[in-house]
Amino acid sequence: MHRYFHDYVGSWLNELGPHIIDLPYWAMEPGEPISVSASGGRFVADDISDIPDTMTVLWEYPGFTMNWIHTSCNSYNFGFGGPPDCGRRLGVMFHGTQGTLMSDYFWHQVVSEGDRLKDFQPPAESIPPSPGHEREFLDAVKTRKQPSCSFEYHVPLAITLNLGQIAFDTGRKIRWDSKAGRAIGDREVERALQPNYRKPWKLPA
User: Fold this and answer.
1) Spelled out in words, what is the top-level CATH class assigned to the domain 1-76+150-190?
2) Which terminus of the chain has fewer CB atoms gathered within 10 Å of its CB, N or C?
3) pLDDT tens for residues 64-91?
4) At what angle do helices 12-20 and 151-170 cross, to 10 degrees?
5) What is the 3-state secondary structure (H, E, C) of 11-26?
6) Model pTM?
7) 3-state DSSP helix/strand/coil % of the chain, to nearest 5
8) 40 touches 54 (CB < 8 A)
């Protein structure tokens, strides 16, 4: 139940975002965004939860943008009119100048511009299968070899998601200085980045 309350999770962005946005982060390696804006609210949900049932986030990067869109209004799946079993109710779409790739962790479909896939030969598989998060972690402890999802990989993804949540909570567009790790010219966002913890708990200096 905690995932339905802002104080514990913020929204579905922070709950499911690490699993969904992992795909474009893995593919694009974008680092931290240069700006973030968000909108949404509770338009349909009529229960005790307080997170938005509808939310859109826009992150800007040099050369491309990334959008998060979610709604809890109905159960329509990620197939966009395809067969009912073609995918889960979540996924990622890569829109490029040559076509669109729709994907989740179990299914994908490429829609090309014109006949660009006519003689296309897919590359050989190059990503080794994971033995599982727990096994990878234990192997990393024993061998000191980095797991496929290391802290260095996840930190910019976590920052990206948290900035999206703060943009939604404050209703402000955030211009982000990734080198300084702070919002540019926005004290309200800066305050949101440094929460007030309940005494006597505090982060060590």
Assistant:
1) alpha beta
2) C
3) 999 999 988 776 655 555 555 544 568 8
4) 150
5) CHHHHHHHHHCHHHHH
6) 0.86
7) 30, 20, 50
8) yes
